[in-house]
Write a structure and sequence with these properties.
The chain is an all-alpha fold and 213 residues long. It is built from twelve helices and no strands.
Amino acid sequence: MSRKLLMIITVVLLVAVPAVAREQQDPRADYQETMTKYRAAKTDEEKCTVWFDFLKRNPDNDFTYGTVNYLVRSHYLGHINDPAAAIKFIDKTVSKVASDDRKRGLKSLAIGVYGKAKDAGRLKALSAELAGLGELDYNMHESFTDAAVEAEAWPLALEHADAALKFATPEAIRAENEKAGREMDELRVKKTVGAHRSQHGRQGLGVGQPRKS
């Protein structure tokens, strides 16, 4: 091997190794550094920028859902008020993650966005898609109910309200918490059941009342 070729290889390695090290940086350490930058940022735009940059460096990690959730609410729905752009952002991020559970979680962030966009058709399609990927829990049914009310998709709202109400029993609450590995005493169970039922009363869907077919 010539001396010139050896020098070229050496220079390439010196440049490439630090770059690889940066790419392999622990997402948790990067997250902590980004949080420090976020707290130091002066404007909402700057705060969003540090998280956009974090997501570019770490598109698929334990912090992806929380980061995307923040950016959807703060930037896309808050700062620029563009639900269509929010959907594109969510879809783009979904394409970069490997875990099915993580994909499903990210897709669930679009529920409220479709509600704000009053897109009843795509909201209904998302409902069927997520149900096909696994059983919906109470919180997801509630999210669909709220979004469907906002989109004035009343049959879909009633469908999810009824499904959510099935979780408002002591047995369902206990089963849900046991599945998640959480302990809950009977007083907490009773309060949770009451909170679930009162939520439906606030939604004004007439749950438990006669309805027109």
